[in-house]
Input
Amino acid sequence: MRKFTLLLWSFPIFMKKFNVFKLHHSSEFEKMALEIFQFQAKNNMVYKAFLSHLRIDIHKVKKIEEIPFLPIQFFKSHKVVSSNAAIQHMFLSSGTTGNEQSKHYITDLSIYDESFTKGFEHFYGAIEKFTILALLPSYLEREGSSLIYMVNNFIQKSKNKKSGFYLNNLEELVQNLTELDKNNEKVLLIGVSFALLDLVEKHKFKLKNTIIMETGGMKGRRKELIREALHQILREGFGVENIHSEYGMTELLSQAYSKGNGIFECPPWMKILTRDTEDALSILPKGKSGGINVIDLANINSCSFIATQDLGKTYANGTFEVLGRFDNSDIRGCNLMVMS
Output
């Protein structure tokens, strides 16, 4: 395994030498994940302290299942970075009243741009061929959303002038969506769940050329629904066979996608593991439900190994399902240390 000198690697050089976006095989993924782990264990002061608290000998970590995952709560209380490079941008989670927002500090936005572009095109093809219609009111109404940044980039890449965000102009959205679909245009309507529900309550569609993609979350606007119920309402309302989904979060630089039935696939540089909810350091076998751990190799200047507050299940073919969230705000077994 290559040895990295503390803080001497610049991230452009690191990305060029270990280009995560050129991964093809699982063996390549594991090798690179272990190299990035060694790098971040030495350079990320928050992660380094976390590993030290757990008394982890990083040189004995030989498999990705042995890598400890940083609880996602640390993004609310600490600056999680792996270099002293200048911060280009900061993404903020939506947060709720009385709760702190997660902060994701970005030193190189081009890595995020490349990740979400290649990630989308890995599953759907060239963005330029789509008309992008965005119905993301709760995200547009605040600053610092990584989702808005990504979708705005998609809109800029789209060659159709009708691509854009729709907030208070729903009638224009309905007209454009109907006309574009009728004209056999490739359309992506991406929206937060409650806004898509609001739309189909007022208008009924029979779409043939449009992908409906929900990004999850009622954001306190509606009662939470289980996925099956939500997708059934949306399928009937839009007249489509499947509802697609995007799985991402403020603390990541990559997204997974589902083309239906809530089964998600990751791009080659991202992987999902599940952990025991009683023992956060134990990784579960495929098919067992547990806490979702994300390996996001694009997240090099932050932390590529994050224990989320989501519950899920992984399958033998590398896909996964999101089953819900933990009932309480703390991840059992992960609240192992307090750092000032």
Notes: The first strand starts at residue 70 and ends at 71.
